[in-house]
Amino acid sequence: METLKNLSDEQVISDLLPQKFGRRGKLWIGILLIVCAVGAFAYIKQLRKGLIVTNMGDYVSWGIYISNFVFFVAVSLVGSLITAIFRLTGISWRTPLTRVAEVIAVSNITFAALIIIVDMGRPERLYFLFTHGRIQSPILWDVIVITTYFCMSLLLLYITLLPDLKILIESKEKLGKRFSKLYRWLGGYWKGTPQQEKIRDRSITILCILIIPVAFCIHTVTSWLFATTYRPGWDSTNFGAYFVSGAFLVGAGAVAVAMYVFRKEYKLERYITDAHFDKVGKLVVLLALLYLYFNVNEYLVPAFKMRKDEQAHLSGLFTGDFAPLFWFAIMIGMIIPIIVLVFRKGRKPFPMFIVGIMVVVGAWFKRYLIVTPTLLHPFLPKYDAPARFSHYFPSWEEWAITLGSMAGALLIITFLVRVFPIISIYKTLEDKNKTTESHETAEQFGNLQVS
Amino acid sequence: MKQLNNSGICRYLKLNISLAFLPVFFCIPVYAQDSTQAPVILGISYFLPANHVPYLQVSTRKKVGRKFEPVENIKINVYCNDQSAADLLGTVTTAENGIARLGFPSSFKNTWDSLNQFKFIAAGDSSSGHGDLNADITIKKAILVVDTTSQDGTRMVTGELKEKDGNDWKAIGSIDMKLSVKRMDGNLSVGDKDTYTSDSTGLSSAEFKRDSIPGDAKGAIILAAEVDDNDTYGNLIAEKTVNWGRAFAPPTNFFDQRALWSTRFRTPVWLLVIAYSIVIGVWGTIFYIIFQLVKIKRTGTLQKG
Question: Which residues contact A113 (CB under 8 A, 6 or more apart)?
Answer without folding.
Answer: A146, A147, A150
